[in-house]
Amino acid sequence: MNDSLSATLMHRVNVKPIDRTFEVQQDDTILAAALKSGCQLPYSCQNGICGTCRAKVLDGVVDHAGSSMAILSNEDRQQGYALLCQAKALTALTIACEVVEATQDIPIRRLVSRVDRLERLAEDVMRIRLRLPAKESFRFLPGQYINVVMPGGIRRSLSLANVPDDNVLELHLRNYGGPFSQHVFNVMKENDLVRLEGPLGTFFVREDSSKPMVFVASGTGFAPIKAMIERELEKASSREITLYWGGRRASDLYLSSVAEAWAKSHNITFIPVLSEAHPDDLWEGRVGFVHRAVMEDYEDLSQHQVYACGAPIVVQSARQDFVALRNLPEEEFFADMFVSGQKAAQ
């Protein structure tokens, strides 16, 4: 078969248990084809790192392509699991996967915004407020992210740190020294134009549950969790909320005063954790790894939901240990992850 015919070969994918179907071109990933068709499957990084798009192939054959063994083991593959953002269909497929109805009618838009305000929250963390055109509406769910589109088509993904507002978006950026960070910290100024696309991802609070929620953030992983908790407070949710926020030093918890105010005024427990506390921090709180602090406090997570965001090692460790050692149902772990490339460190 020549290349042109191969490129147009299509396979049908049936999603159980709701019997949603879509077509996938041989050279497309299953996730990309699903999103093109309007079938909203769970996803986040789109780079095969976070594991959010993991699903079971009930029938058919896939090419696992770039799927990492660290995220999708040989045992997982033998049991039929695949990462939909990496896997390509070699035959017609039947997969078992949640369809995320909450994002079905929220369009992905491409807009031009302006920098409304730049504010250093720490030496290496910038809060960016973007103002949208006056007559534009931008719908999103707290927890989702956008891509900032740089010259040359380079995309930098940043989580939205505020609840939906008429025309303002809030982002938190840590300076890791890359081109976008250097631009924001050294060049960007108020009123600059910023092109964006979104909202993206399926990291948001599942409102069909009344289970207690445990939020786990590391560093600027606090950004989407801030938006999610603010939304719960806005709607006067009765769900129990516990927030663990981890960093190396006290300065990494750059909006700890916000979380402390939530704890004083609302039914929220806030537990900050430092892994490399310095004497200069005068730290009297918890120390160690943030996901380990959760495990010290909870012998059993079987009746909880967990929402985690931050560095890959934090999210991956939390997922693995909470499920294996604390009885958390795998389907009750929701995560976003900061990785290099398209879904970049934030």
Keywords:
globular; 6-stranded antiparallel beta sheet; metal-binding; disordered C terminus; Ubiquitin-like (UB roll); 3 domains; 2 iron, 2 sulfur cluster binding; alpha/beta; Elongation Factor Tu (Ef-tu), domain 3; 6-stranded parallel beta sheet
Structure explained in plain terms:
The protein is an alpha/beta fold and 346 residues long. The chain folds into 3 domains: 3-99, Ubiquitin-like (UB roll), CATH 3.10.20.30; 106-200, Translation factors (Elongation Factor Tu (Ef-tu), domain 3, Beta Barrel); 213-337, Nucleotide-binding domain of ferredoxin-NADP reductase (FNR) module (Rossmann fold), CATH 3.40.50.80. The protein is built from 8 helices and 19 strands. Helix 7 (290-297) packs parallel to helix 8 (312-326). It is globular.
List the helices and strands and how they pair.
Elements: H1 3-8, E1 10-16, E2 20-25, H2 30-37, E3 54-59, E4 62-63, H3 74-78, E5 81-83, E6 88-89, E7 93-96, E8 109-122, E9 125-131, E10 145-149, E11 155-159, E12 168-174, H4 179-186, E13 193-200, E14 213-218, H5 222-234, E15 241-247, H6 256-265, E16 268-274, E17 286-287, H7 290-297, E18 305-310, H8 312-326, E19 333-337
Parallel strand pairs: 1-7, 14-15, 14-18, 15-16, 16-17, 18-19
Antiparallel strand pairs: 1-2, 3-5, 3-7, 4-6, 8-9, 8-13, 9-12, 10-11, 10-13
